[in-house]
Description:
Layout (H helix, E strand, L loop, with lengths): L33 H15 L2 H16 L5 H15 L13 H14 L3 H12 L18
Helix pairs in contact: 2-3
Amino acid sequence: MSAESGLNGNGHNGRLPTGQFRPGHTLGGRPRGGTKQVGRLRRALEEAADPEVVGKVMAMLAEIALSPNEDIKVRLHAGEAYLDRCVGRPRQTLEVESDPVAERLEEIRDAFSRFDPTDVKTAVLTFLNGGTPPAPPMNGNGFNSD
């Protein structure tokens, strides 16, 4: 089978008959220890980086980004690379107009705030001792009618 089909040379797709990946198989993701290897490599590169060279590269990126003689795509890429390294990539945000879980938690919090702590303690102790605690008056939403 060809590499394009996702199968390796022995006709398997890297999985055992049970569907699990074979030991050491990398088509399904990073091999074991890959994250540690990447971390070690990154630390080694950071330690080996010459601050003078890094400064020159950053200056070159800034110069290209600001040069009116460069193609706009080249300028944009250089500017993006420069800002990514100086400021960091922007954090991804998610706007949520309504959060039903948060709204429900707020309703529950509000309902519990209406209970007298002494009544709650008595109800819990009654329940733990095998009794049936008195039910507070409820409205149609399952909360106190206060």
